[in-house]
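Pilot study result, target chain (141 residues):
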Amino acid sequence: MVAAVLIETGFPARYLELEITEKGLKENPGNIMELLNKLDSQSICLAIEHLGTGFSSLAYLKHFPLDVLKIDKSIINDPSLRQDNMEIASAIIAMGHILGFKVHAEGVETMAQLAFLQKKSAILIKVTSKALQSQRKLLLI
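Predicted structure:
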């Protein structure tokens, strides 16, 4: 179906990013693997969403043709910027880079969170705070 829509619209596959959750990867691994391989062969970017919120093994990451790891906003957007959440985010970013993934962070609300993620080299940082969005020209991520 995705291929048909891309052909019909003329949208370049390399600019399309499809997201799947940790839970979605584990529900039906055989069918999911076949589908992901098919999408990957069409140069579609595949992202795993809500990484770090499931109770599954991280060992499966190397088995799927994924391009992007997205750190869930519940880890990033902790009002207290708790050390344990920042350590989890650091570990996900480092693991993602080592495994060759792009790493995106969602739910950035404060300058402290933004500075932390920039320091850790998260590739894309999704700012959700209106105050930070109004300053985006100054932030140049």
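One observation from the pilot: Residues 20-139 form a domain with the TIM Barrel fold (CATH 3.20.20.450). A full batch analysis is planned for the follow-on phase.
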